[in-house]
Write a structure and sequence with these properties.
This protein is α/β, with parallel strands linked by helices and 196 residues long. It contains 8 helices and 8 strands, in the order αβαβαβααβββαβαβα. It starts with a helix and ends in a 6-residue tail after the last helix.
Length: 196
């Protein structure tokens, strides 16, 4: 299963949720499908997408928040699962694309490659109630639909191939993306939706 296909599968459902991605391949693959003002690509901050997503979810309880994360990033911030479980935001979906590789920072094996480290088990052990691990597109689609319908914190660990986009490059810098994302949220407060 490829991460890009999973993101493509979700893309039609990402018009309204606030979406935060880790750096690298997941961000590029989402951007390649077409940027939306409700997307925030957390460039140059490996490990912190879940923390940003948690903050958004707690402060924007009326909005669905979806985080695209990776195994390497999660391993840099394992405490995130304990914090997520403690606050248990009902509007947050945390998707961890586990490719067993630090693909965006050199392609080295991550701790999950050997099969010893199990991210779903770590999330469950930290106290997250709704955790599922999937490895095929049908199961991924079903898990995503269930999470979207659920009124509870959800973690989906998707086992994907260690492949990324052929070309990296966004015509959107972090600072501009942050300002536009903020304006989008301010527009929600005014009831006007996204702004150009």
């Amino acid at each position: 299963m490829e991460r890009a296909r999973c993101i493509e599968m979700m893309y039609p459902e990402l018009e309204e949720p606030l979406v935060v991605t880790i750096m690298g391949a997941a961000a590029q693959e989402l951007y390649n499908l077409g940027h939306r003002e409700n997307f925030f690509y957390l460039q140059h901050a490996m490990g912190l997408a879940s923390s940003v997503g948690l903050g958004l979810a707690l402060h924007r309880p009326a909005e669905r928040v979806i985080v695209f994360d990776g195994d390497g990033s999660v391993m840099m911030n394992l405490g995130t699962f304990a914090t997520l479980a403690r606050y248990r935001p009902k509007n947050l979906i945390h998707i961890v694309f586990d490719n067993g590789s630090l693909l965006s920072t050199g392609g080295f094996d991550s701790q999950t490659t050997s099969g010893i480290t199990d991210i779903a088990a770590i999330a469950r052990g930290a106290g997250v109630q709704e955790v599922v691990s999937v490895s095929d597109p049908v199961a991924f689609g079903e898990a995503f639909v269930a999470a979207m319908e659920r009124d509870d914190l959800s973690v989906i660990v998707a086992k994907v191939s260690a492949v990324g986009p052929e070309v990296y490059g966004m015509d959107l810098q972090l600072r501009e993306n942050a300002f536009r994302f903020r304006r989008h949220i301010q527009g929600l407060d005014r009831g006007v939706g996204a702004t150009p």
